[in-house]
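Below is how a single chain appears once it has passed through the pipeline. First comes the sequence as given, then the structure the pipeline wrote out for it. We keep one example in the README because the format questions we get most often are answered faster by looking than by reading.
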Amino acid sequence: MGKVYPEIDGRLRDFIAAQPVFFVATAPSGAEGHVNISPKGMRGTFVVLGPHRVSYLDYHGSGAETLAHLRDNGRITLMFCAFDGPPKIVRLHGRGSSVAVTEETFADRLAEFPEPPDVHGVRAVITVDVERVSDSCGYAVPLMDYRAERDLLLSSHSRRTADDLVTYRATRNAASIDGLPVF
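Resulting structure:
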């Protein structure tokens, strides 16, 4: 049976930190538009900042739905699944905000990550003020073996200059698939 927790306590923090992948869900306001679910990973890109606050590094990607949706309404859910060990799913529901690489406070937000991987391709730090912490059984989540991190995202960004990333944001990440502005 699922349980709602008053906060992210030490046991939940340990569970979250042990997961090599998590999922981010957002949606635009209103009845129209696309719900977005994005897998995220890479060690060092997620941090629990307190019992009701978490952050993760948002790298340049093929889309920018999460950033557009947060700008639109702030609603976000993060989901962590155990793919090995006891079955468990943890969801963090809350309100998210982003600080773009171009903003003055970006360096301060980046400093909250004790061991980030290469940050060259980071376009924003997303912070979630967690309003609801819950778990569920995860009985249907398959058992899978973790082999290794993929380095493709970091290696692809390493070939781009800072100016290339500015152009990428302007030409490929300026709006969501529903036309919502990203920045």
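The first strand starts at residue 3 and ends at 5.

See the next section for the split statistics.
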